[in-house]
Inverse folding.
């Protein structure tokens, strides 16, 4: 039932802010016990959980990205967003949003969007 769709620019310049939106349908981001996560996969690498926001609005972040990551939500639009500041080419990846009962979304258990490619390049 629940569907997630990532959207945002596919190209971001170094030092700027990467901003993505996850639009959710078929379920409310403000109800139940789900966490709403952002995960990314750089080329040739594995999945990296970036952070999540709980149904009550509390954010959780990967320690390695906490300094420059903000996850927010807009319950009126049933959306949650990712902002990754001061990006470098190493931030180039496919970015996913996902829903799971656990704060770190599991690929084979949660509901995932199809992913969106974001390239950091000048």
């Amino acid at each position: 039932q629940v569907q997630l769709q990532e959207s945002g620019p596919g190209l971001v310049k170094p030092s700027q802010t990467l901003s993505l939106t996850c639009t959710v349908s078929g379920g409310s981001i403000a109800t139940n016990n789900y966490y709403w996560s952002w995960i990314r996969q750089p080329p040739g690498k594995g999945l990296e959980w970036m952070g999540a926001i709980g149904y009550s609005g509390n954010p959780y972040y990967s320690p390695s990205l906490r300094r420059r990551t903000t996850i927010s939500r807009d319950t009126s639009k049933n959306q949650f967003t990712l902002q990754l500041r001061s990006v470098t080419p190493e931030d180039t990846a496919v970015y996913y949003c996902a829903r799971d009962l656990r704060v770190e979304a599991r690929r084979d258990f949660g509901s995932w969007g199809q992913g969106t490619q974001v390239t950091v390049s000048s």
